[in-house]
Amino acid sequence: MDRNYTTQMDAARRGIVTPQMETVARKEHMTVAELMPLVAAGKVTIPANRLHTCLDAEGIGSMLRTKINVNLGVSRDCKDYDVEMEKVLSAVNMGAEAIMDLSSHGNTQPFRQKLTHECPVMIGTVPVYDSVIHYQRDLATLSARDFIDVVRLHAQDGVDFVTLHCGITRKTIDQIRKHKRKMNIVSRGGSLVFAWMCMTGEENPFYQYYDEILDICREYDVTISLGDACRPGCLADATDVCQIEELVRLGELTKRAWEKDVQVMVEGPGHVPMDQIAANMKVQQTICMGAPFYVLGPLVTDIAPGYDHITAAIGGAIAAMSGAAFLCYVTPAEHLALPNLEDVKQGIIASKIAAHAADIAKGIRGARDMDDKMGDARRALDWEGQWACALDPETAKAIRADRSPEHDDTCSMCGKFCAVRSMNKALSGEYIDIL
């Protein structure tokens, strides 16, 4: 290894300032001296595989800006890698901080390597998905060694973080059967591990061989995202015994990872009623000792297919305000189909609004700066200034152009009844013409 530390956590604990720490500190309006203890304690992760040399590093932690992850990847029904790459480029241009390749069909390695060789954002994967694809064998024929070898393969390909469903064990099989959840397990990776245990009678390989996985992650500085296999898939299953029992185990696994200087994120729900979200975040922070929390949504209602980017944004804002650090976007196609380019855009914008709103509420440094600039631009009826502050300026411009007003200093809703125009004129002593 061409450096005198193994992982970002190892470096922080030894007082070594890495280029990635300097990048993150600059982005977060912090000093490296402020950031380093958080990385050393595991409260901030900097996913940065040493082989992902084009990475523009980001930090993930509840005291930093809330980050956004975008799930992409081909399936058997939608198998065009060029289309997925177009989505990746669009997501990066729109400000996503991470891309997870969830491909479940075809030759996955070239696409994964293209991401880590060309993409400046964090790249994540779920190795258990790729195991069946990589070996081209049915699930039950795979060995524990096969799964571990794919984790190493992904690390060697430069992936910055891997979701591993280490927290379910054979005990979980009995819990799922006993407690009779409405939706059982809805985590795709979790269901594969559960099915493999049922068919083979063996223990979860990601739990049984966790120490070996930690060695791999330490070697390449891969962050483990501890997957929540028992995340609730509907409101009825939220905060139940299966979810909380797995979370307790994830807390134990977090501690074991930190003992080897391996960085950790902990994944969370899922579908959760609004009144339970804050409590979920606080429980995780306690059980997992402040490790960054990575949530899917949470979705606050089950009845909005086609609009789940909105249900997730509502939950995501509450979750991030209450301590979540990383939001996995949800698109209008959630529960329905592989998202297309427009779905990806809608999902990213909804998640970024949620993250930004939470950052303002938490008082993150610099979070409200652009909002204040927007206020100034709106007061001055400065349309170009407003576009410069907008999350999605092209959409804002298109709406105004489609319904352009008679006078440039108004919009087509209010015209000369515009309150801003009237106040500007009144305060400057001008005559206010309405008709």
Main sheet properties: 8 strands, parallel, barrel
Q: How are the strands ordered across the major sheet?
A: 1-2-3-4-5-6-7-8
What is the assigned CATH homologous superfamily of the largest domain? Radical SAM ThiC family, central domain
What value does the average pLDDT take? 96
For the secondary structure, the number of strands is 8
User: What's the CATH C level of the largest domain?
Assistant: Alpha Beta
- The oligomeric state of the chains shown is single chain
What do we call the CATH topology of the largest domain?
A: TIM Barrel
The N- to C-terminal Cα distance equals 75 Å
Q: For the CA atoms, what is the radius of gyration?
A: 23 Å
Question: Which residues sit in consecutive blocks of at least 5 with pLDDT less than 50?
Answer: none
Report the total helices. Answer: 19
What share of the residues does DSSP label as strand, in percent?
5-15%
* Overall helicity: 40-55%
Structural class: alpha/beta
Globally, the shape reads: globular
Helix-strand topology string: HHHEHEHEHHEHHHHEHEHEHEHHHHH
Number of folding domains?
Answer: 2
Give the CATH architecture of the largest domain.
Alpha-Beta Barrel
Question: Which SSEs are present, and which pair or pack?
Answer:
Elements: H1 8-13, H2 19-27, H3 32-41, E1 67-72, H4 81-93, E2 98-101, H5 108-118, E3 122-125, H6 127-135, H7 144-156, E4 161-164, H8 170-179, H9 188-200, H10 205-208, H11 210-220, E5 223-226, H12 241-259, E6 264-268, H13 274-287, E7 293-296, H14 308-321, E8 326-328, H15 341-362, H16 369-379, H17 383-389, H18 393-402, H19 419-427
Parallel strand pairs: 1-2, 1-8, 2-3, 3-4, 4-5, 5-6, 6-7, 7-8
Helix pairs in contact: 2-3, 4-15, 6-7, 7-11, 13-14, 14-15, 16-17, 17-18
